[in-house]
Amino acid sequence: MNDVRRLLHDLVDDARVGAPPIAAMTSTRHRRVPVWWAPVAAAAAVAAVLAGVWALPKTAPERPSSPPAARTWQQLPTPPLSPRSQPISAYVDGKVVILGGSDRTFEGGPMNVPNLLDGAVLDPASRTWRRMPDAPPGLWNQAYTFAVSGDRLIIPLQNRRGWLMFDVGDNAWSRLPVPPMHLDQPSVAADADHLYATSSSDAVTGGPVLVLDLRTGEWSALPTSPLLDARLGMRELVMAGADLIVMGSLTPGVYPTSSRMTRAAAVIWNGQRWRGYASSDSRADVSGSQWVWTGDRIISGTRITQREARRERPDALPAGAFDPVTHAWTSLPWLPQRLSGAGGFRDYATNGSRVYASGYLYDDATRRFVRVAGPGPWTDGAAALTDHSLVVMGGERPVSGQDPGARVTSIELTNKAWIYPLD
What we know:
Neuraminidase
């Protein structure tokens, strides 16, 4: 084992160099991340590196708190949009963008993909809306993910057509150059000048991380590494200040443990080389998805109660957090049982240290949960976290009086919008 570790140390020092550097970000909260994982020649070597990462002690669960009485939902002016569910929602350069979605009036039966192209932009300070131009055809093939670069919203598509970009300041759409290869269920992240993209479900072979220079419109690829092969599944790209991090899960049989659960791992690119860090099998055995950069660490946005986790499988792991400076993994508190099924919008939104999901708000700065149930019986609407508020719009609910066992259920849609002050 010592020989293997010495070999890995040599490989780390011999990692690839010379790829395009990642543009520096201006966030004052960022702490520079050191170099990341290096290429490894064999699966046994990968397992040895992953097994040797240290982590901090587990965090004790926090008790949920209730929001102050003065913080209540306030209805916004009705946006210039028709009733809908499943729209894209994003916080871009101080504005909330609501876009697309579906106007279907049934649940069940054949899958009905989003079919709307129109959208609107909310100024949360003045609480006023403005229409945005309809998106180009192809938005229906959206990959249900997006990236924000300054005042630009970038939406990858599942087909081979050019991806879409909306400039909030110019109120205009444009198409990006077609990626040089198909990315199945792409994950994207962006800085001021570059868009990074990779496949999040590459089950056969590990795909590359592609880079689009937003200034020149040219695609390229970062150096490859065995650390990015098919054993790292469920990939998600996260910008941690100036550094790009590929978060994912190690497939069973790779990580040296008897448990069937997949372990969280981070593969870091700092502009010169790859380095990788897996959650410790002893002190911080964690998993995660929907990873969020809080300004200090990367946390899993997906949270469930311990009871729900144990019901699914007895060896379920808690959600985790990764510090890209110290490379330490820690476990996050389970979702409090009282917040299970809290209701409200089944939506997900992040901004800074805050994560909103399914009726609760988690702030990683305080390590506390707050129940924030939606303003009505609507689900599958839009949700966006601004710097000082939570905004929701649209959604659906079943039409009353129907057979609860019916295969197809009629639903009612809304185009109402609400705002919930946080500060």
